[in-house]
């Protein structure tokens, strides 16, 4: 009997421990589920707030877009009444952007004087093909405006020995080689180079592939040469210039 009572007490104690463990596990599980529910509710609240803010921003952007569209229509109608082609205004803005890019290129001396950087292999253009390269003027380009732009920028001034670009320079039937030699043959020491301003204007006008100003500059960069005198500015090797012209025309 004593042994049976002892076993019974041991079983009771064991059951009590097991019951306590089970109760503790259930409480832990209940608290864990509650934390998950609270976290999900918090995420749902944040998501709802983000959706509301996004909806307000979208509505604001739509209203702004509508107002800008209406304003654009009014301006277009006003330009039509005044007899002004609004498409030409877009072209002039693009030309202004190109001039700004050219100014950035001219203001960076490291970009103009870097002779070590080489983008792609140099291409030798046969002399027989040089005469076939024609100068293709763009609609908004002129030698006077380009020279004025260089004077307004921080570039070095064009040397007085270089004659101004004549009207025949923009003639599509004029050979590029003859034109460049006519402007540069008086400079015996630099007869194989061209002034950077003339070279940039030349490649931009013959840019039939519609490459950007930076792409054209990257192609000419291997031919940049520093001038002997500071007032002359930079120059471009004619061989590189002809190779670029052959590539973009």
Low-confidence stretches: 109-147, 153-189
Beta-strand residue percentage: under 5%
User: Number of DSSP strands?
Assistant: 3
Q: Major β-sheet, in short? A: 3 strands, antiparallel
Describe this structure as you would to a colleague:
This is BZIP domain-containing protein. InterPro entries: bZIP_sf. GO terms for molecular function: DNA-binding transcription factor activity. The chain has 249 residues and is mostly helical. The protein folds into two domains: 1-84; 92-248, no CATH class. Helices cover 64% and strands 4% of the residues. The chain is built from nine helices and three strands. It has helices at 2-82, 86-107, 109-113, 127-130, 143-152, 176-184, 196-205, 213-220, 238-248; strands at residues 193-195, 224-226, 234-237. It has a three-stranded antiparallel sheet with strand order 1-3-2. The longest helix has 81 residues, at 2-82. It is elongated, with a radius of gyration of 38 Å. The model is unreliable at 109-147 and 153-189 (pLDDT under 50).
Task: Throw out a few tags for this protein.
bZIP_sf; single chain; 2 domains; DNA-binding transcription factor activity; 249 residues; 3-stranded antiparallel sheet; BZIP domain-containing protein
